[in-house]
């Protein structure tokens, strides 16, 4: 299909679809959690720059995310979510129907006859360009590989540091008792923050082949998993005390406490749990540091590995698909065997009294 002055350019097939129409297509009903958050963020960015639903400019989205400080691995996940949504739309009819409905106005603007043949040609070219834009090569994100992750970026608490964190809230107040129970569960099971938020009273004491454990319902990937308490069942004593004092017999284990000590019916949000965990600091090499929920998950993995638990068992308890992910949580193993050996030296006395 040609313009009067030559070949039709890419801009000639940009059909603007703004506001509620754009968001309704990008963010499907039923989208929840991380998926909804990522799609909404992309929709905000697209609307903010006057972009088109049919020309998503994922390379520009990638650059915007990285400029905002999003980690490359997270940026890649954002892009994957958006691509997945677009591919779902391409499998349906909504995009094609929308293009066809708006094709008449575009054909009129470029001086082409409005007939079914020209409409279909315009629609097919637009969809082809969109499919090309979804190619990961068009918005490649380089994720640096890291052999070792240092303790400055990811905390794995020692036994002493973990115990100091557990004692930080105190148990003399209702809020302190709740926070101690929360920290105990996270350190003793390695659950994700969302899993801790979703934990119900009935999940605390489940059994599998006679073994007492915690049941995670619909964890990451929608999978249930069982985490044996083993020698860490003392955490249940703290949780039981919290439940008794708070008057909780069913429903969410961890709940908001309003002023005056009124315990709410709804469970804590993931954001609230993040804030609670970061409220309590521990001293690490003379510096006060705040741990994040995922640091407690790494601590569980590292401490259990150090105590002799099989790595595959840790993988199962954490709910990982790949053992390499578990290795990353445990961190550098047997690092002491990699210490430099004194094969050569320098007489440091040569530096005494040196003035340069």
Sum this structure up briefly.
With 356 residues, the chain is mainly alpha-helical. 48% of the residues lie in helices and 9% in strands.
Can you tell me about this structure?
With 356 residues, this protein is mostly helical. The protein folds into two domains: 2-139, no CATH class; 159-334, Intergrase catalytic core (hpI Integrase, Chain A, Orthogonal Bundle). The protein has helices spanning 19-26, 33-48, 58-67, 72-91, 94-109, 116-133, 159-167, 174-189, 193-198, 234-246, 270-279, 293-306, 311-318, 323-330; strands at residues 2-3, 6-7, 206-208, 211-216, 225-228, 255-257, 263-267, 281-284, 287-290. It has a three-stranded antiparallel beta sheet with strand order 3-4-5. The protein has a two-stranded antiparallel ribbon with strand order 1-2. A hairpin with an 8-residue loop joins strand 4 and strand 5 (225-228). The radius of gyration is 28 Å and the shape is extended. The N and C termini lie far apart (76 Å). 28% of the residues are buried.
Give me some keywords for this one:
hpI Integrase, Chain A; 2 domains; 14 helices; 9 strands; 48% helix; disordered N terminus
Query: What is the average of the pLDDT values?
Result: 82
Cα-based radius of gyration, to the nearest Å: 28 Å
- For the largest beta sheet, what order do the strands appear in spatially? 3-4-5
CATH topology of the largest domain: hpI Integrase, Chain A
Q: Give helix and strand order, one letter per element, not per position.
A: EEHHHHHHHHHEEEHEEHEEHHH
Query: Given the C-alpha coordinates, what overall shape results?
Result: extended
Q: Give me the number of helical elements.
A: 14
**Share of helical residues:** 40-55%
Distance between the termini: 76 Å
Q: Using the coordinates above, name the CATH class of the largest domain.
A: Mainly Alpha
Q: Can you count the beta strands?
A: 9
Taken together, the total number of domains comes to 2
């Amino acid at each position: 299909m040609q313009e009067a002055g030559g070949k039709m350019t890419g801009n000639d097939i940009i059909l603007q679809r703004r506001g509620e129409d754009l968001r309704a297509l990008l963010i499907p009903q039923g989208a929840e959690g991380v998926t909804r958050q990522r799609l909404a963020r992309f929709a905000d960015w697209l609307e903010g720059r006057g972009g088109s639903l049919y020309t998503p400019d994922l390379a520009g989205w990638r650059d915007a995310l990285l400029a905002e400080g999003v980690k490359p691995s997270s940026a890649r996940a954002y892009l994957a979510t958006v691509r997945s949504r677009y591919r779902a739309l391409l499998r349906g009819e909504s995009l094609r129907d929308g293009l066809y409905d708006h094709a008449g106005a575009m054909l009129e603007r470029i001086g082409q006859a409005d007939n079914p043949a020209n409409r279909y040609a315009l629609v097919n070219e637009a969809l082809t360009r969109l499919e090309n834009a979804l190619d990961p090569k068009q918005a490649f994100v380089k994720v640096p590989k890291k052999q070792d992750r240092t303790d400055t970026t990811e905390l794995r608490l020692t036994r002493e540091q973990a115990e100091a964190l557990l004692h930080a809230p105190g148990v003399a107040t209702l809020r302190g008792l709740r926070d101690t129970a929360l920290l105990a569960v996270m350190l003793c099971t390695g659950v994700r923050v969302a899993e801790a938020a979703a934990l119900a009273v009935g999940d605390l004491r489940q059994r599998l082949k006679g073994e007492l454990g915690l049941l995670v319902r619909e964890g990451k990937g929608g999978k249930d998993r069982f985490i044996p308490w083993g020698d860490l069942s003392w955490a249940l004593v703290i949780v039981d005390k919290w439940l008794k004092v708070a008057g909780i017999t069913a429903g969410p284990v961890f709940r908001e406490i309003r002023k005056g000590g009124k315990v709410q019916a709804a469970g804590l949000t993931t954001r609230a749990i993040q804030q609670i965990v970061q409220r309590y600091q521990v001293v690490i090499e003379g510096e006060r540091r705040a741990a994040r929920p995922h640091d407690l998950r790494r601590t569980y993995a590292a401490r259990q590995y150090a105590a002799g638990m099989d790595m595959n068992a840790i993988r199962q308890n954490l709910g990982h698909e790949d053992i390499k992910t578990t290795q990353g949580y445990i961190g550098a193993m047997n690092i002491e065997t990699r210490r430099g050996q004194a094969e050569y030296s320098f007489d440091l006395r040569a530096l005494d009294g040196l003035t340069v």
